[in-house]
Write a structure and sequence with these properties.
By secondary structure, this protein is mainly alpha-helical. It has eight helices and two strands. The protein has one domain. The relative contact order is 0.14.
Length: 199
């Protein structure tokens, strides 16, 4: 069965078994973010494949908020794909800055989501990383919304999330995924610089 194979050990990284889902998640994730930096629309369908693979990885690691986030990402990737494709009429969607109203809305939603997820993870799961799992989920949702609208500052949100994700995944023994997020961090900095030149 495909799920059994994806959950089976592909390699041992840093002394921890690494599944095929994590290896393929690494590869598709790295390529996906590289395509976002280049503003290539193929990042969205590849992103859907990536989040489905990471869903399996996070469920196995008991990172339940991150696992649930992957389901939301499927919808957001489909929305981003559609939004980038339609743009504004026939012209490509331009990169722009986040407005004050958008910032206020995202910050309020991010704080509320972090609080609600932390409470849920604490009271309804056996999670051992409630706050970082919740905070990274909220930051990632904010960043994905911004990315789908081509908001320049979405890169700052991704950078903040990655700085929490890297030690979180290391703590959970997901060393290849932690390494992927180091790569994501570098690509986010490159994306910020690239998109800034087009504003």
């Amino acid at each position: 069965m495909v799920l059994d194979w994806l959950n089976s050990t592909a390699v041992t990284a840093f002394g921890a078994p690494t599944s095929w889902a994590e290896v393929l998640g690494f590869a598709t994730g790295a390529l996906c973010v590289w395509l976002v930096v280049r503003q290539h629309i193929a990042n969205w369908p590849l992103g859907i494949a990536n989040v489905l693979l990471l869903l399996l990885v996070f469920l196995d690691a008991k990172l339940y908020a991150d696992a649930g986030l992957q389901v939301v990402y499927v919808v957001l990737n489909a929305y981003g794909w559609w939004h980038w494709h339609t743009g504004r009429g026939q012209a490509p969607l331009p990169v722009r800055r986040t407005t004050r109203v958008e910032w206020i809305g995202q910050i309020v939603a991010g704080i509320a989501a972090t609080a609600a997820l932390t409470w849920w993870l604490t009271t309804h799961t056996d999670s051992t990383t409630e706050l970082p799992d919740a905070a990274t989920t909220a930051l990632s949702l904010m960043a994905t919304y911004g990315q789908s609208r081509k908001l320049l500052e979405s890169w700052w949100l991704w950078i903040a999330a990655d700085l929490i994700y890297i030690p979180l995944y290391g703590y959970k023994g997901l060393w290849l995924t932690a390494l992927l997020y180091v790569l994501f961090l570098c690509l986010c900095i490159a994306g910020l610089r690239s998109w800034r030149r087009t504003v």
